[in-house]
Amino acid sequence: MSHVFPRHCHSTQPVAVGGDGCFLIDADGKRYFDGSGGAAVSCLGHSNTRVTEAIKTQVDQLAFAHTGFFTSEPAEELADLLIKHAPGDLDRVYFVSGGSEAVESAIKLARQYHLENGEPQRRHLIARRQSYHGNTLGALAAGGNAWRRAQFSPLLTEVSHIAPCYEYAERAEDETLFDYGQRAAQELEDEILRLGADSVMAFIAEPVVGATLGAVPPVEGYYQRIREICDTYGVLLILDEVMCGMGRTGHLFACDAEGVAPDILCIAKGLGAGYQPIGAMLCTGEIYGRIADGTGFFQHGHTYLGHPVAAAAGLAVVREILENDLVAQVRARGVYLETQLRRRFAQHPHVGNIRGRGLFWGMEFVADRDSKRPFDPGLGIAGRLKKAAFANGLICYPMPGTRDGRHGDHVMLAPPFISSEAELDGALDSLEHAIVDVVDSAA
Ligand code: PMP
């Protein structure tokens, strides 16, 4: 009997014993193509020796030194490298152990910044519906996923949720993409004015929406308008690139494609590529300076901030991405993946939408393409698709639609940056079989 507590209490999971490039191997020797990197984590695959060697070297040299007393060489070097390539005026890095911690830190930093700035009334956070920013209580409060929030809602701080930028479901037929994006962004200004122009501390959003919507990029102009609105009202813009950052979308940072830089940026998953748990919050020199010149102390912290071994892994990952120009490779392989997805599924009667960027793609399933009507949630399409694909040797990331019928089941693909075209073909064969087994038979 396993004493490890999985999320689904009654599930029996195979034991993972090895990793080989883009594949995971279980105790029976079965190989699984990691088509979603778990949840967009394993960007370098599972046996990158540059990263494993860096970890071994660091453990031998220095396993841990508490940031209450020391900084460390790998943390300093990684921060320098991130800042060198980061958008806008991002100038300081706060290393944590994962995505939720990065978001939690961002929310608290935004609040403290306004306090130091003499604006204690700025306490409202605005986020978007159908979003996910993590599972700790602050990050969960920010997220707009009704199902995840439901049982914890009495414990969550109040956060306003506006519409996501989700063209497939929300754009009117007679509306241009640009006009739709401006309308979606306008909800932010409306909400700021409703709450009181000087009472909002920050707006948080994911530039390309991962798990909750399934790799949905924004339309052109949306984030530029969001940036303008934030600037007008002194609201900090927090971008959550925990899933879509670190090259995943074919840009080192997803917001690079929008021509917009945030005040605070959260990254994680691809930063450690699964080799070590690491996340980071980057902030501008203005925010850092205000706190440094004020109380001089960010009132937050965790034992494993800036962990040297995690930082050494992150440093090796970022060097691997930059020195091998893997971001360009993501773009090229992304074009291949998109072409093959469209060739196989664009005409499928139950594929309503194929969208994504780089090596980050989603497909949304509908019972009816014309009306975009989702499948009955009771059919459990997403869960069954995950099982069928896994049985076929493919790890992908299916998510159920929302109960209000605004959004159907989808599947997300986020394969390693090193995937070959032949490996992607194999993954799509497995996915196609799973779709035939589950989606076609449900129709
Ligand atoms: N933000 C986003 C956009 C995410 O996708 C996730 C994880 N799926 C998180 C935050 C939370 O990250 P973690 O699971 O590392 O705490």
TrEMBL record:
Obligatory cofactor(s): pyridoxal 5'-phosphate
A GO CC annotation given for this chain: cytosol
Pfam families assigned to the protein according to its UniProt record, in alphabetical order: Aminotran_3
Gene Ontology MF terms: pyridoxal phosphate binding; transaminase activity
Record's keyword terms, sorted: Aminotransferase, Pyridoxal phosphate, Transferase
PANTHER family documented for this protein: AMINOTRANSFERASE (PTHR43094), AMINOTRANSFERASE CLASS-III (PTHR43094:SF1)
The family this protein is said to belong to: Belongs to the class-III pyridoxal-phosphate-dependent aminotransferase family.
Name under which the protein is recorded: Adenosylmethionine-8-amino-7-oxononanoate aminotransferase
Organism for this UniProt entry: Shimia abyssi
